[in-house]
Amino acid sequence: MELLCPAGSLASLKAAVDAGADAVYIGFKDDTNARHFAGLNFTDRQLEKGIRYLRQHNCRLHVAINTFAHPDGLERWKGSVDKAVSIGADVLIIADLAVLDYCAKTYPNIEIHASVQASVTNAAAINFFVDSFNVKRVVLPRVLSIHQVRQLARVSPVEIEVFAYGSLCIMAEGRCYLSSYLTGESPNTAGACSPAKFVEYKETDTGLETHLNGILIDKFTDDEKAGYPTLCKGRFDVGDERYHALEEPTSLNSMEMLPELMQMGISAIKIEGRQRSPAYVSQVTKSWRQAIDACKASPDSFKPSVETEQCLSNLSEGSQTTLGAYHKKWK
Amino acid sequence: MKYALGPILYYWPKQRVEDFYHMVAKSDVDIVYLGETVCSKRRELKIQDWLKIAQMLIGAGKKVCLSTMALLETPSDLAMLKRYCDQQDFMIEANDLSAIQLLSKQDLPFSVGPAVNCYNAQTLDLFLNKGMKRWTMPVELSHDWLRKIVNAPLLENKRTDFEVEVFAYGNMPLAYSARCFTARSENHSKDECKLCCIDYPQGRVVNSQDKNQLFVINGIQTMSGLKYNLINDLKSMHNTVDVVRLSPESEDTLKMLKNFRANETGQNPMPLDKEQECNGYWHKVEGMVQVEV
């Protein structure tokens, strides 16, 4: 089972490698990747250093080119594919069918993974990507229950990768336009959800308000910790109730399911968080490295240690974690 | 220009659905999409019921297309999709790549729905090569984006091989989730939802704390809080759009259809409701915005 960790910067890449990642995933400094945030991603010089570091430590490189090519911009996406191949990426993670088509035809020997943004949730969709582009792996969106993941793993002709830890996106990724509805920019069109340039924090007499493009996402009292206004994680009114109508600010943590994931033959687990700090990447990677090794050694008795669980929950959004959709009783 | 009625996105009782389509049969709509696209637990109508309605509409001179689910997660979801794809009397609207896979393997023609990601001419061309006959663009794209796709040199000689459809009226489906938001709003788990969507024939409104109507929740689907309305943009569609889609909100949508037809060339514009309607996406800005046309 591959432990695949996020590297939004050179420092994070080194942190992941040092903490025991088997592979890291990165994106270029443009809108061809879905973490197109200011201050994130790699310049060419940083890339060169990063690759040298990965090679020295026998670690694989995945490059995410996982947004959708604009109608007059396919050349930019093709350029990212060319660049990823030329720097020696081991894997390209792609969402757009046009980009997949280009990559599969131009570089038939490069390993391609269907990105989570490609929204592959069933066996026929997996076959679509295998037949059309010869993908070697699909990354499942965080919308399936553990039972559904098992059913898919049983029939999939290719490797399955799942998200194990990190910010929780509750929508079928790649098919959520909520961000463009409120801001004009979505992960699909601009490479970011709830982009930072639209965020505003307003101190008021009744508490701290978070806004996204002028829309009130949440309001916090003095004793509450204000979170980033990701639009699906605010408190809204439905009927007479005010609550997190779509999602709580919480992180996914599937560590207790590790023996099951291993047993069903999941090829890789992905840690979300290219936007997080190197210290975060280091701690999370270390926790998962230990867990995977412990689980491999004795799958029957594996249980995450109290310290590990504590560490992961401290690192998570809102200091809360959930099994998310993996858990059947999830509301 | 042709007019289409999209699939009913909400969960209505069987009788209401049947009554609605009897009204549709008498309306001047050209194309009707039928079927459940949101949640496989909504079983007021079975496949036979939908086929019966389809036959009735064919008898009334309508073109009929069977719409399929956007988010398929289980082997039984897929088995149901196969049943739809195996019948050959009606064209299928694929709302997931799985449907395109099943249909193209059988060399059957299909329509690509708005829930399938298609952002460029190369993707459209790929669908054309697999048997696509009609394409409804993703709701978040603009007129400008659409023009760039259909005018791409790649499609120059293929423009008559397919129709272009635009979602032009109704609450827009914006996201599909693992979670059932309607069940959550009633404090039920997804597995024990009690089919409560049937109590909300137009979904449930989600307001911001300062009373801004942000979204409508409809089972696992999150929709726009405001109704998209491109009635005053029809004139700008003439060279790029073949079919205009209205999404059934209630029986009144058929009246709206009349208004659309009346304003096809722009001679009967209709002021949009300032509080309830939007048209931003078409004009290349935030979807929720209302741009003065």
UniProtKB/TrEMBL annotation, chain A:
Pathway linked to the protein: Cofactor biosynthesis; ubiquinone biosynthesis
Binding-site positions, [4Fe-4S] cluster: 169, 176, 193, 232
Keywords from the UniProt entry: 4Fe-4S, Hydrolase, Iron, Iron-sulfur, Metal-binding, Protease, Ubiquinone biosynthesis
Molecular functions per Gene Ontology: 4 iron, 4 sulfur cluster binding; metal ion binding; peptidase activity
Cofactor: [4Fe-4S] cluster
Matching PROSITE patterns: PEPTIDASE_U32
Assembly and binders: Forms a heterodimer with UbiV.
Protein name listed in UniProt: Ubiquinone biosynthesis protein UbiU
Keyword Protease: yes
Organism: Pseudoalteromonas denitrificans DSM 6059
Protein origin, superkingdom: Bacteria
Biological process according to GO: proteolysis; ubiquinone biosynthetic process
Purpose: Required for O(2)-independent ubiquinone (coenzyme Q) biosynthesis. Together with UbiV, is essential for the C6-hydroxylation reaction in the oxygen-independent ubiquinone biosynthesis pathway.
Alphabetized PANTHER family for the sequence: PEPTIDASE U32 FAMILY, UBIQUINONE BIOSYNTHESIS PROTEIN UBIU
UniProt cross-references to Pfam families, sorted A to Z: Peptidase_U32
Family stated for the protein in its record: Belongs to the peptidase U32 family. UbiU subfamily.
From TrEMBL, chain B:
GO molecular function: 4 iron, 4 sulfur cluster binding; metal ion binding; peptidase activity
Pathways involved: Cofactor biosynthesis; ubiquinone biosynthesis
Pfam family, one: Peptidase_U32
Cofactor(s) the protein requires to work: [4Fe-4S] cluster
Keyword annotations: 4Fe-4S, Hydrolase, Iron, Iron-sulfur, Metal-binding, Protease, Ubiquinone biosynthesis
GO biological process: proteolysis; ubiquinone biosynthetic process
Family matches, as InterPro entries: Peptidase_U32, RNA/ubiquinone_mod_enzymes, UbiV
Binding site for [4Fe-4S] cluster: 39, 180, 193, 197
HAMAP family: UbiV
Assigned protein family: Belongs to the peptidase U32 family. UbiV subfamily.
Assembly with partners or alone: Forms a heterodimer with UbiU.
The protein's role, per its UniProt record: Required for O(2)-independent ubiquinone (coenzyme Q) biosynthesis. Together with UbiU, is essential for the C6-hydroxylation reaction in the oxygen-independent ubiquinone biosynthesis pathway.
Protein name: Ubiquinone biosynthesis protein UbiV
